[in-house]
Specification:
Oligomer: single chain
Number of helices: 2
Strand content: 35-45%
Radius of gyration: 21 Å
């Protein structure tokens, strides 16, 4: 039986970790994962290079769930694996399967401390309508093939941050198990401008008059490849569905429509249907 020696190489530089197989008898994907030590709420970038020059996108799985991959220059493909405060910290297995040898890589997902709020609700409040939930759910499910963002995302409002991503809550003394604050809130005066954090197509416009009782006036932007921005509680909407907007273009104004205690923008950033922390996208960005 012919003996085959395979050396698994690990190189960590500049916030990236790359796994490759060194040896002349094996063909296996080179895989680069960033960040090297992700924490709850991070978006994990998985870049795969086919050593045999294959042009077919590999299948990328994380803990048994498949994520779409898209081509990059130099015979590479990338998938984004979202994480959230609801995920269990610890060992995460990322698997790459395709025309080359299957790679299974273990990544440590770090725990993270999120602030806790105690909220007292009085009365029934606005629970939202089926119409708005159906439209918002359909928007969050979008995964379109063209990448429209470039570099770091912009801050959509110059207001102060009044509530950060990931806040957990007790409502009337009972812990909300499946709740976390799915975005960042910016407090500013009614009418203050809101801009697109990146280029994209406006795929959702919802208004209070049309039944958006909970979200209020809403704009959803598709940045491509599963990256979506949703902006809610607006006082005014300056775009229409189907419009293409550039990064920094005004899309509306801050308000307090829907279930809001005061004028602010709630900006939610979604990747592959999961609300992720916008902060790394703003300050670090992805290739």
């Amino acid at each position: 039986m012919r003996r085959r020696d395979v050396l698994a190489g690990l190189v960590a530089t500049g916030g990236l970790v790359t796994w490759g197989l060194m040896g002349q008898t094996a063909h296996a994907y080179d895989v680069t994962i960033s960040p090297t030590s992700p924490q709850l709420g991070d978006t994990i970038s998985v870049i795969v290079r086919a050593r045999n020059g294959a042009s077919v996108a590999p299948t990328i799985m994380a803990n048994g769930k498949a994520y779409p991959s898209f081509p990059l220059p130099d015979n590479r493909f990338r998938a984004f694996v979202p994480t959230s405060p609801l995920d269990p910290p610890g060992r995460m297995v990322i698997q790459v399967d395709g025309s080359e040898e299957t790679r299974s890589l273990a990544v440590g997902l770090r725990d993270r401390s999120f602030r806790t709020q105690w909220i007292t609700l009085r009365g029934s409040g606005s629970l939202g309508t089926d119409h708005e939930f159906d439209r918002v759910d359909a928007f969050k499910a979008l995964v379109t093939p063209d990448r429209l963002w470039s570099g770091k995302l912009l801050r959509p409002s110059q207001g102060r941050v009044s509530s950060e991503y990931g806040v957990r809550r007790y409502y009337n003394g009972e812990f909300a198990e499946n709740y976390y604050h799915r975005g960042v809130d910016y407090a500013a005066g009614t009418g203050a401008p809101i801009v697109a954090p990146a280029a994209g197509y406006v795929r959702l416009v919802g208004r209070v008059a049309d039944g958006f009782e909970l979200h209020g006036n809403t704009v959803g932007i598709d940045h491509g490849q599963g990256l979506l921005s949703i902006m809610i509680h607006l006082s005014r909407i300056d775009v229409q569905e189907g419009d293409f907007v550039k990064a920094g273009q005004r899309v509306g104004a801050i308000g307090s429509t829907g279930a809001a205690t005061g004028p602010h923008l709630h900006w939610g950033l979604y990747m592959n249907q999961v609300s992720v922390d916008p902060v790394p996208w703003r300050f670090d960005g992805f290739e």
